[in-house]
Amino acid sequence: MILLSICIPTYNRHEYLKRTLSAVTSQAAALPDPGQVEIVVSDNASVDATPEVVKSFAGPNFTASRNPANIGGSKNLNKVLELARGRHCWLMGDDDEIYPGAVKKVLEAVSSHPDAGLFFINYNRKADKGPIIRLPHDMYFKTAEEYVDYGLSHFDINEWDPAKFTFYTSLVIDREKWLAVPENTHPVINHAFKIHAFLPGLPVYLIAEPQLSLNDAPLKIEEGPKSLVGYWGEIYWYMGRRYGRRLGFLRVILRAYLANMKFKTLRRLRGLLGKK
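The chain above was modelled as a monomer; its predicted structure follows.
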């Protein structure tokens, strides 16, 4: 019986994808019951060596699909979840690195807490030391509202960045709950809006020990006419409405805005000093 689907949407990153698939297939094969985990890949019409890489990993409990044309990142993420068979799906980026034993750890959490609507997997940024969120131990919250209350009283503004569930390789979700939410077209963080649409009232489980590292690809602060910080404000406000914590998230938005202003001011000062 498949308990965990590792779902990997991919596009034109065959070298990273090969590393990711090598890690997850070898870890799944080493489990006491490898049949509890499946790997699902949806290739979004890549024009590099992705099809050859995917084909080389064909085997039991490995499903691969290729779109005839690029359908966009959000729709491809939804596609890979539609192909999955497990109740819980680990949303995995094709370029992020999981640590030894990560699949076993996540499977144990899913097996022990099948009622959870979402599992958060702590991680490291490659440029930093220590976990992205400071947690004393694995934590189970009976409802997402309890999780939010914990975050509002314990997380600093840097911890709220991952704690709002925007980095999807750190997330394992209830597949049926996800697919029941109508697809929307948010331009940047569509998956986070979907998660917060279904999560209220459901249990949340946090895995404290980092199980992966984020690939530190350059990220532009500006996205079209609106800054990335503006999009973060949108998701914080949406969370405030969904969980009935508007005032708490208004404070988070203000802290994020002030932190961004401080960052921009320091960057300008460094630029001015560098010209002298």
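The CA atoms of residues 60 and 113 lie 26 Å apart.
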